Amino acid sequence: MDFIGEQYYNLNRILLVCVGLWPFIGTVIGMGIIILSSLSFILDAIIPLNESQPLWLPVIVEYFVDQERYFFAILIHTFMFAYAGCITIAAIATMLIAYVLHNCAIFEIASYRIEHIFDENILQMSKDIRQHILYERLIHAVYLHRRAVDLANILTNSFATLYFILLTFGVASTSFSVFHFFYVLTPVNDVFEVIATNIFILLHLYYIYIGNYVGQSVIDTSTNIFRTTYNTGWYAAPLWLQKVMLFIMQRSSIKSTLTAGGLFDASLEGFAKLMSLSISYVMFMRSTRSQQENTQEEL
């Protein structure tokens, strides 16, 4: 079982590093955006022109102040707000990923114990010793399986509301980002805006995919117990143990999932549904905007 723990330890470390890089990536992207936004001031200092250069803000927000006078204050405030958001999301995601992968490791250990219940050397022992060893191994396997199921339920009850809010925010933000991408792509007048929008879309897709990937891992490891139990040599076991194995297969046939708000199961299929939903929202917003433009032209 050491290789199971090492496998999930390495996977956990990789995912935590990938998610933990969000604040660093956000810092680099933020510094790049600040430099791009300040490019007009830099060019005016190097090559002064008779006409004023337009100012570019990555996010259009109404601060009810003179944006040209307080340009750098608004830019730094926007950067700090985005950086704090990245740190918050990374902290929640790393904690959730660690718990979920721990749950997956328990499921895998339970599968390993069930797989090695019917060893050939045990079946060759005397009846009393064989029955005692089979009892012990079966108890340990069922205990681990119950712990894994209970932990999956605890994670669902603890993070369901928060996970649902993050997914709702991610779908809405992705839809608006894609809609904005089509909006700035049509005239292709602002290259910086197109690049920034692409980066935002990729970051949204990345964090939504990670959330659904760990949910798919829980589903795969929980249903793997049913396949492992069915592929064991249960037919060579005593009759009482065969009856008990039927109960194990019946319970393990019910997959454990991370459910968000009682409506959405985190999985790769759910990721595809979310992307389809986002594209549907984008198409709806584009059609609504086209109708408004046509109405204004007619008037």
From TrEMBL:
Q: Does the keyword Thylakoid apply?
A: no
Provide the protein's localization.
Cell membrane
| Keyword terms | Cell membrane, Membrane, Olfaction, Receptor, Sensory transduction, Transducer, Transmembrane, Transmembrane helix
Instruction: Name one process (GO BP) from the record.
Output: signal transduction
| GO molecular function, a single term | olfactory receptor activity
Topology with respect to the bilayer: Multi-pass membrane protein
One GO cellular component term of this record is: plasma membrane
Q: Membrane-spanning residues where? A: 21-50, 70-101, 162-185, 191-209
User: What's the protein called, per UniProt?
Assistant: Odorant receptor
The scientific name of the source species is: Ooceraea biroi (Clonal raider ant)
